[in-house]
């Protein structure tokens, strides 16, 4: 298990590379105030939106519905969140919801993300392996300066992580063996699924992804190939 | 028809952005000499290989066989070229052919390509819309410094240009309307197919793509939205 084996690093994005909670809450605060609510509810709004993320993808993974890109699932989930927050959907223009849905396209990277990716790009192919769709990843990269070699992930694979097909198809598109691809994530479950498919694994903790009271994924919980403090530390461990 | 309408520029690659003939001939010359042949045959070798490109894709477009990535078609075509050149396939190690097949991954950009793409990237999403597969495009971009926002094209669309699905699926992945996407190519037939699908079109001539005696695509032959001398000129016309 040496770095020399690796040809590509693929990355989880929401939470691992960007601060989805802070970014969504920032835009939700403006939205909530516009509709007579308090900006204090913005974190809860972001959490409620994100809480519907896995169940929505599970309906695709289970075969209950065909593959839909994440922007579509986010938009459906947003309508449910409005309802949960007692906001009358009929009084919100569709264009305003469409724009709020794009908050996910405008998330900011963590402070170490761009430097870490830039270092890793000097030796490896780097690409997102996210459940976010291609356009979402393109917009986010242009917003935050993420220097991708390619945009991979759920929409290219037509499968959502942690389904094995999602990992296998990304490896196939890269024309590499699984052991030549390293999955980088702040989530142990993502790495466990990647490892089952034969990929290398690297964990970096993001202890504030869910806010100050986070209780999950505070540390590596599997036998991962690399564990690093952040993305710059991972790059150093990989010799770049 | 103003530049303000456009959100993305997608590019033909072989011939439009990179010199496939010079790059393939350079590696073919070494191969030919290793097998007791003259480097003088290298241009003809490159032309013979490229001549099998459209017929091979046509078997996919017609439905005669399922979608295969271009690396597979190139590899099959290479075996035919060996035969046409009277080289005994049995005496060439497979690994040597695999490596020669990667000549397509190592093509050099034309002198204006990187500057033109870099300028265009400052305002637009830029992505290859090539019949080359994703890994081929990634390797070529790393080799030549092409600053893509994403890698699109045949493998993502699972369809080869000029099939309409190839253009439609790329527009769909970008979540744009066809008129917000500009197809850039040195080939009038590519632009004609893109225009039929509602895309904007930009022509740049590459009069030496096929060598000094080239007779095709020397000038714009359709009602394209933009006609430029090269990619830097196109960027200027588009205001960047």
UniProtKB/TrEMBL annotation, chains A, B:
Belongs to the HAD-like hydrolase superfamily. S-2-haloalkanoic acid dehalogenase family. Transmembrane segments: none annotated. GO terms for molecular function: (S)-2-haloacid dehalogenase activity. This is (S)-2-haloacid dehalogenase. Keywords: Hydrolase. It comes from the Bacteria. Its EC number is 3.8.1.2. Catalyzes the hydrolytic dehalogenation of small (S)-2-haloalkanoic acids to yield the corresponding (R)-2-hydroxyalkanoic acids. Pfam families: Hydrolase. It catalyses: an (S)-2-haloacid + H2O = a (2R)-2-hydroxycarboxylate + a halide anion + H(+). PANTHER family: HALOACID DEHALOGENASE, TYPE II (AFU_ORTHOLOGUE AFUA_2G07750)-RELATED (PTHR43316:SF3), HYDROLASE, HALOACID DELAHOGENASE-RELATED (PTHR43316). InterPro entries: 2-HAD, HAD-like_sf, HAD-SF_hydro_IA, HAD_sf, PGP-like_dom2, S-2-haloacid_dehalogenase. It comes from Paraburkholderia azotifigens. The lineage of its organism: Bacteria, Pseudomonadati, Pseudomonadota, Betaproteobacteria, Burkholderiales.
């Amino acid at each position: 298990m040496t770095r020399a084996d690796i040809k590509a690093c693929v990355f989880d994005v929401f939470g691992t590379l960007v601060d989805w909670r802070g970014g969504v809450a920032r835009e939700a605060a403006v939205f909530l105030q516009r509709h007579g609510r308090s900006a204090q509810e913005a974190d809860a709004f972001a959490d409620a939106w994100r809480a519907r993320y896995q169940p929505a993808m599970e309906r695709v993974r289970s075969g209950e519905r065909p593959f839909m890109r994440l922007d579509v699932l986010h938009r459906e989930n947003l309508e449910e969140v409005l309802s949960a927050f007692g906001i009358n959907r009929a009084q919100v223009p569709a264009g305003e919801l469409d724009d709020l849905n794009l908050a996910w396209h405008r998330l900011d990277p963590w402070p170490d993300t761009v430097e870490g990716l830039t270092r890793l790009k000097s030796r490896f192919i780097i690409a997102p392996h996210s459940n976010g769709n291609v356009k979402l990843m393109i917009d986010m990269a242009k917003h935050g300066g993420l220097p991708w070699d390619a945009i991979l992930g759920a929409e290219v694979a037509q499968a959502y992580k942690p389904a094995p097909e999602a990992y296998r198809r990304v490896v196939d598109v890269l024309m590499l063996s699984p052991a030549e691809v390293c999955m980088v994530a702040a989530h142990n479950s993502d790495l466990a699924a990647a490892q089952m498919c034969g990929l290398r694994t690297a964990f970096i903790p993001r202890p504030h992804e869910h806010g100050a009271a986070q209780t999950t994924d505070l540390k590596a919980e599997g036998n991962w190939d690399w564990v690093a403090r952040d993305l710059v530390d991972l790059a150093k461990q990989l010799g770049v």
